[in-house]
């Protein structure tokens, strides 16, 4: 699970330090270098995790902090939290940390462009209404709700959860017929796992499954 320490979730990159540097490189080359060696690998690691990742957004998520939050599988935010894309209006950059991929896929073209071009804060409640995040809760209930979700996921079939993540990502670049084939092949593989047998047995016995 990811959450912020203090009043905010993540304010984005540390602009004062300038980030990682290569000798003799231009400012832009160093910006790209920092993304290549640090930020992009982090997003890929979180998004590609075989286990579900939860983000508990406890305050403002700004700039790359938005991408960091959205790289999680389940994003839950407190009512005082907000999401803001400062890249274009304030820094003359494009959104990064996966924001140019997450935003249009989650909220559509019009809303993604509005957020990126105007840089206005998106309150957590509206983010939930738009489908950017899973849930918005009272601030004092944030961590309790996040831990409930974590406990539920921890007791589930981790092998199937990893395949669910891959299947949903795969669907973004597949047509229906191709995705149906993908589902068939994956179900065939999962159907031979002991967790499927346990799921069927527990269903018939009307008890909670005990997955591996």
Automatic annotation (TrEMBL):
Stored SUPFAM superfamilies: ClpP/crotonase
Residues in coiled coil: none
UniProt keyword Isomerase, yes or no: yes
Alphabetic keyword roster: Isomerase
Record keyword Isomerase present: yes
GO molecular function: isomerase activity
Gene3D superfamilies: 2-enoyl-CoA Hydratase, Chain A, domain 1, Lyase 2-enoyl-coa Hydratase, Chain A, domain 2
Family: Belongs to the enoyl-CoA hydratase/isomerase family.
Record protein name field: Enoyl-CoA hydratase/isomerase
Species of origin: Tepidicaulis marinus
Lineage: Bacteria, Pseudomonadati, Pseudomonadota, Alphaproteobacteria, Hyphomicrobiales
């Amino acid at each position: 699970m990811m959450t912020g320490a203090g009043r905010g979730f993540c304010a984005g990159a540390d602009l004062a330090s300038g980030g990682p540097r290569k000798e003799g490189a231009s400012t832009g080359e160093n910006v790209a270098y920092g993304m290549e060696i640090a930020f992009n690998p982090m997003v890929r690691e979180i998004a590609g995790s075989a286990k579900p990742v939860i983000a508990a957004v406890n305050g403002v998520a700004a700039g790359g902090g938005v991408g960091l939050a959205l790289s999680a599988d389940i994003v839950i935010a407190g009512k005082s939290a907000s999401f803001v894309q400062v890249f274009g209006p304030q820094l003359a950059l494009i959104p990064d940390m996966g924001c140019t991929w997450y935003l249009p896929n989650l909220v559509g073209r019009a809303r993604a462009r509005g957020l990126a071009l105007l840089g206005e804060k998106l309150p957590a409640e509206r983010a939930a209404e738009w489908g950017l995040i899973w849930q918005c809760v009272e601030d004092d209930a944030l961590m309790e709700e996040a831990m409930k979700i974590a406990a539920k996921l921890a007791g589930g079939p981790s092998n199937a959860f990893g395949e669910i993540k891959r299947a949903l990502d795969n669907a973004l670049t597949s047509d229906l017929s191709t995705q149906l084939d993908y589902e068939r092949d994956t179900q065939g593989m999962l159907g031979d796992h002991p967790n499927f047998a346990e799921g069927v047995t527990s269903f018939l016995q009307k008890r909670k499954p005990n997955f591996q």
